[in-house]
Design a protein that fits this description.
- The structure is a single chain.
- The two termini are 17 Å apart.
- The longest helix is centred in the first third of the chain and has 13 residues, at 30-42.
- Strand 7 (171-180) and strand 8 (183-190) form a beta hairpin.
- Strands 1, 2, 3, 4, 5, 6, 7, 8 and 9 form a nine-stranded mixed sheet that branches.
- It contains five helices and nine strands.
- The chain is globular.
- It has helices at residues 30-42, 75-85, 138-145, 197-209, 215-224, and strands spanning 5-13, 49-50, 59-69, 90-98, 110-118, 130-131, 171-180, 183-190, 239-245.
- Helix content is 22%, strand content 26%.
- By secondary structure, the protein is of the alpha+beta class.
- Helix 1 crosses helix 2 (75-85), helix 3 (138-145) crosses helix 4 and helix 3 (138-145) packs parallel to helix 5.
Length: 253
């Protein structure tokens, strides 16, 4: 019998029809779909652990998950077969064997999210971007966003009632980027994120962009640690998990 080996799965998905990443008692999830397909192909119950837990409707250009098995597999063939089994809105990029100590969630050193916004009616952007009918001051929003780099406690942007043990995060990047006329995205990278954190941050920055909150008031919202002082949570359809980083670890042999 082979010893148990760990494999990383690199994948992307359109989260529109899913109730998030994590298995839920009522509602289909991305994790559930992959575990079902893996268990069928490996002919044994196989569970996976993801790098994060995206909410309902949120997408991922890159999600990483790991699974353990004592079944001999060909990574290329398993990638091909999984893509044949899985629905059209989940795509497996590659599968690779890694050191058994490497963990998809706890070994990740950073995660990056993008939130997309367009400022004019666009029938081709509407499914994956938030449309606004009022002008936004993006330079001012960028100025306010710099306050995210000088704090560690993000309680003000944590979903009420969350059972997290700590609201401390290390944000290393936070900025708005223009990708075309009237099209922007907010990029934020951190070692970890709280539930609903990115959408709450964007909602509060939108208040700054509309002139309803000053740069100084945005900084005060962070210091307050109160979710009620921050802006609304933005719609999920415009949010993408873009990247997950790991230490430079040699491939297992």
């Amino acid at each position: 019998m082979l010893k148990v080996q760990r494999f990383f799965i690199y994948l992307s998905y359109d989260g529109t029809r899913y109730h998030g990443w994590q298995v839920q008692p009522n509602g289909i999830t991305v994790q559930e779909e992959i575990e079902r397909a893996l268990s069928t192909l490996l002919r044994q119950k196989t569970e996976i652990v993801g790098a994060g837990r995206t909410d309902a409707g949120v997408h991922a250009r890159l999600m990483v998950a790991h699974f353990d098995t004592d079944v001999a597999i060909d990574e290329g063939q398993l990638t091909y077969k999984l893509n044949r089994f899985l629905p059209h809105d989940i795509a497996i990029k590659k599968i690779e064997k890694v050191d058994n100590e490497l963990h998809a969630r706890f070994s990740a050193t950073s995660r990056t999210y993008h939130y997309y916004v367009h400022t004019a009616k666009n029938p081709f952007a509407r499914a994956y971007s938030w449309e606004t009918s009022y002008p936004l001051d993006f330079p001012k929003m960028n100025l306010a966003a710099q306050a995210l780099l000088t704090t560690t406690d993000f309680a003000a942007f944590c979903k009420s009632g969350s059972d997290v043990k700590t609201t401390l995060c290390n944000v290393t990047k936070a900025c708005w980027n223009e990708i075309g006329e009237g099209r922007w995205y907010f990029e934020i990278s951190a070692n970890r994120f709280l539930r609903n954190m990115v959408r709450a941050v964007v909602g509060t920055l939108i208040e700054v962009g509309r002139g309803r909150m000053s740069v100084e008031e945005f900084a005060e919202v962070i210091k307050s640690g109160s979710r009620s002082n921050a802006g609304e949570s933005m719609p999920a359809n415009a949010l993408f998990l873009e990247d997950v980083k790991y230490p430079s670890t040699p491939r297992s042999t």
